[in-house]
Specification:
globular; TIM Barrel; 40% helix; two-stranded antiparallel sheet; 18% strand; 10-stranded mixed β-sheet; alpha/beta
């Protein structure tokens, strides 16, 4: 007779046979950095308690505290002062992300800095590409994405992460980076990014909601699973070094599919809506926040994620440290 409880009798036994372990090095903290007259600017995002829009100096202070707690990597999202139809501040040498990368690498050179490569925060219309007669143009957008990625690499980014979901963007970015002497800069592709309702709080924080229509013509249909394989395999062929599934928990089946099919490092993004739901329920006393945070992050590791982008990263680091 099988008796599974034999190996659950003590905490020591449970740790001994644990199949997946969440580790401090698995966690990446997202930050929203704002082009602001006051570099110490810090404003909480109402729909994301505990997360902030940060001026440049405030970002550096937050990153220093996080690094002291054991955080090893961040991903940056920019909120520019000015927006236009061609997202010119996305690839400007003195754009907010370019400034933030240079400052972080100067003050915290050992911190892994990943940059989100997209145009939606920088366009006046909030879409991820160039617009013509209400349509997002794919191929003309690639040039701007490649220019943005190059500007991030030139500023010192360790990894560039295209999140736009334009076809062919990984190949365009790889070609531009290689041609400019940045062949060693890795690409973390948002290979599988669904048109999800879980992004709402992020769009508040990054001020990136589209001014018309939606993103269904370039982000993936939540009903599709096989398409995710095609998207991921295409990005591998184009030169991606790492792949991401976004959102995380609603798409653990997709994450598992990719883990079984591909051998590149895989990331899961626990997005703003996932964070906000847990925070809201915890504030009502409806669930144990710490327990649910660790359980949710562990589920992503179990499904196959090598590392996780999460707004809970700093809280999770504290929990892991306290648990020994």
């Amino acid at each position: 007779m099988f008796r599974g409880r034999r190996l659950r009798q003590t905490a020591g036994l449970r740790r001994l046979v644990r199949e997946r372990e969440l580790r401090p090095q698995d966690l990446i903290q997202p930050y929203f950095v704002v082009e602001h007259d006051d570099p110490a600017f810090k404003q909480e995002v109402p729909s994301m308690p505990g997360q902030y829009q940060l001026g440049l100096e405030a970002l550096l202070q937050e990153a220093e505290r996080a690094r002291a707690q054991g955080l090893q990597g961040v991903i940056l999202f920019g909120v520019p002062r000015h927006k236009d139809e061609r997202a010119s501040r996305a690839y400007h040498p003195q754009g907010i992300i370019q400034q933030a990368v240079r400052s972080l690498k100067e003050r915290l050179p050992e911190l892994t800095v990943i940059t989100d490569v997209c145009l939606c925060e920088y366009t006046s219309h909030g879409h991820c590409g160039i617009i013509d007669q209400g349509r997002v143009l794919n191929d003309p957008t690639l040039e701007l994405l490649a220019e943005t990625a190059l500007s991030h690499a030139e500023a010192g980014a360790d990894v560039v992460a295209p999140s736009d979901m334009m076809d062919g963007r990984v190949a365009a970015i790889r070609q531009r980076l290689d041609g400019a002497g940045f062949a060693q800069t890795p690409i973390l592709s948002y290979a599988v990014k669904y048109a999800s309702g879980f992004y709402g709080p992020f769009r508040d924080a990054a001020q990136s909601a589209p001014s018309f229509g939606d993103r269904n013509t370039y982000q993936m249909d939540p009903a599709n699973r096989l398409e995710a394989r095609r998207e991921a395999e295409a990005d591998v062929l184009e030169g991606a070094d790492m792949l991401m599934v976004k959102p995380a928990m609603p798409y653990l089946d997709v994450l598992r599919d990719l883990r079984e099919r591909l051998d590149l490092p895989l990331a899961a993004y626990q997005v703003s809506g996932e964070y906000a739901m847990i925070k809201a329920a915890a504030s009502k006393g409806w669930l144990d926040e710490e327990r649910v945070v660790l359980e949710s992050l562990t589920s992503m590791k179990r499904a196959g994620a090598d590392f996780i982008l999460s707004y809970f990263s700093l809280e999770a680091l504290r929990m892991l440290h306290e648990s020994g």
